[in-house]
Amino acid sequence: SPFSLLQSLLVERATEETDEIIEKICFSEKLGRMKAGQKLAALQRNFDLTPYTREYSLEEKLPTWYVEGHIPQETVRNMAAKLKESLGLADGNRR
Predict the structure, then answer these.
(1) How many Å apart are CA 72 and CA 90, to the nearest integer?
(2) Number of neighbours of residue 74 by Cβ within 10 angstroms
(3) Which of 12, 15, 55, 68 is surrounded by the most beta carbons within 10 Å?
(4) HSE-CB for 88 with a 13 A CA cutoff
(5) How far apart are CA 29 and CA 90, in angstroms?
(6) CA 65, CA 2: separation in Å to the nearest integer?
(7) H or E segment and range at residue 73
(8) How far apart are the first and last CA of the chain?
């Protein structure tokens, strides 16, 4: 699901800036009671999700570059493209 893609990308592209959104996903009781689609919409209203949908160049190291043997960068790029499409950002427009 798009929400599952976001969860994976948050971990795989983790930076200090992702702390707040990861904490919200893990510990917000209100968010925890929502369905996946509702969670994604709520997060999209309150957080900038573009860092997780933007295209990465082949030369760019992901913040989690050290796990490259376990999470190929191409897989992360494909997941980001799917999330971008699910959020309606593929054509540059937000829903």
Answers:
(1) 22
(2) 10
(3) 12
(4) 6
(5) 31
(6) 23
(7) helix 73-86
(8) 17
Tokens of 34: 């929502």
pLDDT tops 90 at residue 9: no
Query: Is the predicted pLDDT of residue 15 greater than 70, yes or no?
Result: yes
Considering only CA atoms, which of 25, 20, 26 is closest in space to residue 40? 25
| 16, two tokens | 């200090």
DSSP class of residue 63 equals T
Summarised one tens digit per residue, pLDDT across range 26-83 is 889 999 999 998 999 999 999 998 888 877 776 777 666 555 555 677 777 888 888 8
Single-letter amino acid, residue 26: C
What global pTM score does this model have? 0.60
